[in-house]
Amino acid sequence: MEKKNAAVEGLQVTLDLGYTENLLRDEWKAQIVEQTKPLTKQSKHLANKEIEDVLALVKNKENNEKELEEYESILDSGEYEDGQDASTVQSYIEDLQNKIKKTRKTIENKRAKLSVDSRLNLSRLIGNEFLKMRMNALALKQRIRDRLRQRKFEIEGLQRAYRNTVNQAKLQKHTDQQIRKKEPGIQSLARSYNKLCTELVKLIETKKAPRGALAPLPIELEGLFKLDVDDNIWQDIGLTDDNDDNNQTSVPLWLGNEDVRSGIKWLLQLDRCMEEQRRLEAEKISMFQWMREEWVIAETALQWSEQSPELVYQLNMRKKYLLRLCLNWKPVIRQIPGVLEGSWGPSLEELAEARKFETTENVIERETQEEGSEDDATVSDEEEYIEESEMMDNMETEGLNMEIVDSDEEMVL
Q1: What pTM did the predictor assign?
Q2: Is the dihedral of CA 165, 168, 171, 176 positive or negative?
Q3: Sequence ranges of the domains in the chain
Q4: Where along the sequence do coiled-coil regions lie (predicted)?
Q5: Tell me, what's the pLDDT at 247?
Q6: CA quadruple 16, 17, 18, 24: dihedral positive or negative?
């Protein structure tokens, strides 16, 4: 309950700032998608594949446009085929218009990713060295960003996980060292990216790049791991668009906004608390039903076993066990939310008698233990007295023997 109350209070702080629960859940879904999607690998065929995808989309868009013209002409002329009417044709037209709109948007995004002018003939760009190198640079930069994000979340999780005890401090130090070992690999990726940027600049200067191509910005190694909002690592200038004025990569809220990140953490903690509460409520009902069924079975069996004293004794022992179990369960289960309808099985009088018996039995057991400890102390005192008496007898016997030996020596002299 403490964790649940803390989560409710923390989440309310975020909601008071103007953020909604739907926004937090959307950002959490976006975070999952971003952190679990496979990274693009460098390949000499990467640019060609993107160009071929764009060409296929262009061909698909042209076919849809031709089909759209045919349906529009049918609607204008009113000459419908068998099984068609105006509403059916209109639905086809709307469906094709949506497809064309989505395809056109996808083509624009892929052209922007290739950083080429829409007026250029894409088929002539297949095998272009600049595009191949630029696509590899974009894939490399995305990998660097992902590695930096992973490092950021690992360090933050480490800082939240441990207290300042000696053993945990040692474990934290060891884990921190393991995280730091990844830094040279990230720096190596950044240097490889900067090398590609230099080669792209040379291709632009020698006019081997498509018209209007821009050189991407290199990554500054100093302060690379700070991951600030305005760092160049977030800017894909020269990598995703020919101008990049309206297509700059913005830092997502789940990564760059501390209020949203805190709200997501509290929201997830509240979700886990609610899940645990539902499981506890189900367990509470199961325990209640089990106790009631077991008690009914024991009562019914007693009614059918009156002629068997041995079985009656065993069933009464079973009832005593169930009563003790019920007395132990009820105070604990009472803390779990939810109302139970009906009784647990035993009557209030039986529970009161069992509670009285348990209290009396505990008192007798404690008194027996105390008497046993007193008896042990008495026995130990008696044993100590006997040992001392035996030691004194031995000393007296030894002294008497020495006197006899001395007297014998005097007589001999």
Answers
A1: 0.46
A2: negative
A3: 129-256, 262-365
A4: 44-113
A5: 42
A6: negative
